[in-house]
Design goal:
The chain is an alpha/beta fold. 30% of the residues lie in helices and 18% in strands.
């Protein structure tokens, strides 16, 4: 049997006819693996035909069709690959720059072609469907005079299309680029189609010109992708594309509509100084690393709704000349966040990265809109910014609670929000929310700003303690239920014990009716500002304390003050929610 089916995610195991295990570099295509395992045995006739094809130029050989081309590739498998014996198994890899005669066997399509004074040449052959290129394939400087297709082709080594001109449509849908793909300064005069293409190594489109539609829908980029200074004159489609390496669109120009919907950016994405002259639709995009949009210009509408910026983003000095929609956008990943749509279809590496990506004490997830210009108020109605934890130094983490109290805040003063600019960034977001009359969103951002001040702008122990208490009791004035729960489930029972103790009564010895009366008394003190309860309160005092009760007046005053404060916070949440007053 030439190979064993993998189990538990392991790689397939291959064997030679004599039973020796053989392992392959990932770039080695199945076409060549079948030769080394004996799965494919070439006949004498096929070898003779391949030898004849070897004397042709690359263009002439390509005209023989995919079957003849791929048979030639198989016959000369030893030309492209190196087999090394390693103990009990053999290892087969593609030749690299360190191997003898590596460059001698490059497939250069300029061979045998008439070139002009600039080294440019024309290729009229148009169909490379299912072709396998086992070594570097060079089309640099070529001009395809008509439409050309590389649909489902495989480039196992570098694909060189630098300065190539595609005068007709260029179809790379389903194409596999196992090594570097170079399209630097390439020109696509009509449509360029890369749907479901796979780029396993760097992809370079620096300075490329796309004069019409370009489609990368569901394409997979596993390494760095560079579209710096690229020009997109028609519609651009990156819907459901997956980028697991850094992406650069710096200084790129988008003249047509651009779609990034449901794309995934696993590493950094840089759109600095890019220009979007038509609408940008980035709905449902997942950014797992920091994104840069500094000095980017959006001339028409932009839609980021339902996108997730989980590791920070920078829109400093960006210009939004039309409506910008950030509705339901999440900046930072809350611990309670649910997996996004299509999570189950992600590969294990992406899932693991998403699962581990929570806001930590060193996260810088607050978006930076400082210096950004919005000519129309943005939509921030349901935008969410994850809470920012406090960063504590190592010494403080080693202290227990008693030791921290004994230091009188000495170590507490050193803990802080790691991003020292977070509060300033949040104030800018509040300004934008106010500009769009998103009052509740503005209050939510204010809460995060208060928490972000700790240790940076708010350095005093008591100031920071008050901010923390305000958040614990009422979520900084945003929760109606929380202050009432504190009042009736903590303070009311606590003062029940206090009042019973003041009358020398053990609350544990009371029957149900007596406990109920103590609870009513504590409840009445909680709401003593309601005049109708005062008479009932007096009768309960006589019932509970037939002997003169020794209840200090300041106890009741403290109870009334605490209750009034909690009720105030509850109604503050109502006011903030409905924008009353």
């Amino acid at each position: 049997m030439p190979k064993d089916q993998p189990e538990n995610g392991e790689k397939e195991k291959y064997y030679t006819p004599d039973g020796t295990e053989i392992r392959f570099e990932d770039r080695v295509p199945d076409l060549l693996r079948d030769i080394f395992t004996g799965e494919t045995v070439l006949t004498i006739t096929e070898r003779i035909r391949a030898k004849a094809a070897d004397n042709l130029t690359p263009v002439e050989r390509a005209k023989c069709g995919a079957a003849a081309w791929n048979m030639w590739v198989q016959v000369y498998a030893d030309r492209w690959c190196v087999r090394e014996e390693k103990g009990t198994h053999a290892y087969v890899r593609l030749k690299s720059v360190n191997d003898e005669a590596y460059e001698e066997h490059f497939i250069d399509f300029s061979d045998g072609q008439e070139k002009d004074e600039n080294g440019k040449y024309k290729i009229t052959f148009i169909d490379f469907t299912h072709f396998h290129f086992p070594t570097q394939a060079t089309f640099a400087g070529a001009t395809f005079s008509g439409g050309v297709t590389f649909e489902w082709a495989t480039f196992s080594d570098r694909a060189d299309f630098e300065w190539t001109t595609f005068s007709g449509g260029a179809d790379f849908r389903g194409t596999t680029f196992s090594d570097r793909a170079d399209f630097e300064r390439a020109t696509f005069s009509v449509g360029a189609y890369f749907m479901r293409a796979t780029f396993s190594d760097n992809a370079d489109f620096t300075g490329a010109t796309f004069s019409s539609t370009v489609d990368f829908e569901s394409a997979t980029f596993s390494s760095t992708v560079d579209f710096e200074s690229a020009t997109f004159s028609g519609e651009v489609d990156f819907i459901k594309a997956t980028f697991t390496g850094d992406v650069y669109f710096e200084r790129a120009t988008f003249s047509g509509e651009a779609y990034l919907e449901r794309a995934i950016f696993s590493c950094g994405a840089d759109f600095e100084r890019a220009e979007f002259y038509d609408k940008l639709s980035s709905q449902g995009v997942i950014f797992l690393a920091k994104t840069r949009w500094n000095n980017t210009v959006f001339y028409t509408s932009v839609n980021f709704s339902e996108s997730q910026f989980l590791a920070g983003c920078d829109f400093e000095n960006a210009k939004f000349k039309a409506f910008a929609n950030f509705d339901y956008v999440c900046f930072g990943k809350p611990k309670t966040a649910k997996p996004p749509e299509r999570y189950e279809k992600w590969d294990k590496t992406l899932q693991d990265k998403y699962d581990k990506l929570h806001v930590t004490s060193k996260s810088e997830t607050v978006p930076n809109f400082r210096g950004a210009v919005f000519e129309q108020a943005p939509n921030l109605g349901y935008t969410e910014i994850a809470d920012i934890p406090i960063y504590k130094n190592k010494e403080e983490n080693q202290l227990n609670l008693w030791q921290r109290l004994r230091t009188k805040g000495e170590y507490l003063l050193t803990s802080r929000t790691y991003d020292s600019q977070a509060a300033a960034k949040l104030r800018r977001i509040q300004e934008l929310a106010n500009q769009g009359h998103h009052h509740l969103a503005e209050k939510k951002f204010f809460r995060v700003e208060l928490l972000a001040r700790r240790g940076n702008e708010a350095k005093g122990f008591w100031e920071r303690a008050m901010i923390r208490s305000f958040d614990i009791i009422s979520k900084c004035g945003l929760s109606f239920a929380r202050p009432l729960m504190w009042l009736f489930f903590f303070w009311l029972p606590a003062f029940m014990f206090i009042y019973a103790n003041a009358a020398d009564i053990s609350i544990l010895d009371l029957n149900e009716e007596e406990i109920w009366n103590v609870a009513q008394y504590s409840f009445a003190n909680s709401l003593s500002f309601l005049g109708g309860l005062l008479s009932e309160q007096a009768s309960m005092v006589q019932y509970l304390f037939p002997i003169k009760a020794n209840i200090p007046h300041w106890w009741k005053l403290l109870h009334n003050s605490i209750a009034t404060l909690h009720i105030f916070f509850a109604f503050l949440a109502v006011r903030n929610y409905f924008k009353l007053g």
